[in-house]
Structure formats: C-alpha cells, structure tokens
C-alpha cells in the first residue's frame, strides 16, 4: 500500500460517498443512463452522481473534465424550483472528500449560534 496525501488521490469508488447517504436513510433513484439521484428524507437535499452527464448538472466550462459529476443541492422547504445552495465536484475529486462533505451534511448537529439568519422551521408531514 502506498501512502499518498488525499489531495493527490484519484476519484476512487462512488460507493464510498453514496454509502454515507444510504446509511442515513436517503431514497435512491437511477435513470436509464446510469446516473444516481439520492433524496434526503425531508426532500430538502438531492445528491446526484452523474457519470453519464445530465441536465441536472450545471455547465461550468467547455472542458469536459471540469464538468461536475457530483451535484448536491439544497432546496427551500423541498420545493425543487427554489435552490438554496449548491455544491459541485468534478470527476477527479476523491470520493473520500465527497463522503466527508455528505457525512457533515447528514449529521444531526445544531447550527452555529453566531449565524445571522435563523434556521428554517422543520417540515411537518401532512
């Protein structure tokens, strides 16, 4: 085994990252092209693994190697037309980095008390 700094690691296996949201109970859907879409239980966040490209991924540059393969979006109260924030990762991003990002996202930890804006109210199942 060779010890390398993580920043020079290759992309690794997508299951490294997808396992994080699977363990957190997220719902999985796959399209006919081999792309994977995962949905948080409250549907406020979607994490997509798009190895075959998809219109869900934003077009960032004209360089295919820089196009996002991972897209993570948060929405206002589960309304899919109101994006709150978005994170994208290219095909060369180590899966361990994406897993760490997703792990922090799925953790049930309180928000920082020094935030300027209040947290949105929790969704109520109807």
Describe this structure in words.
With 126 residues, the chain is α+β, with helices and mostly antiparallel strands. The protein has one domain (6-106). The chain contains two helices and five strands. The chain has helices spanning 14-23, 95-106, and strands at residues 27-30, 36-39, 45-49, 68-75, 83-90. A five-stranded antiparallel β-sheet has the order 1-2-3-4-5, covered by helices on one side. Helix 1 (14-23) packs parallel to helix 2 (95-106). The mean pLDDT is 78.
Helical/strand content category: alpha+beta
Number of strands: 5
* Strand arrangement, major sheet: 1-2-3-4-5
Our count of helices gives 2
- List SSEs in N-to-C order: HEEEEEH
Q: Can you describe this structure in just a few lines?
A:
This protein has helices spanning 14-23, 95-106, and strands at residues 27-30, 36-39, 45-49, 68-75, 83-90. The chain has 126 residues and is of the alpha+beta class.
Task: Give the helices and strands, then pairings.
Elements: H1 14-23, E1 27-30, E2 36-39, E3 45-49, E4 68-75, E5 83-90, H2 95-106
Helix pairs in contact: 1-2
Labels describing this entry:
alpha+beta; 5-stranded antiparallel beta sheet; 2 helices; single chain; 126 residues
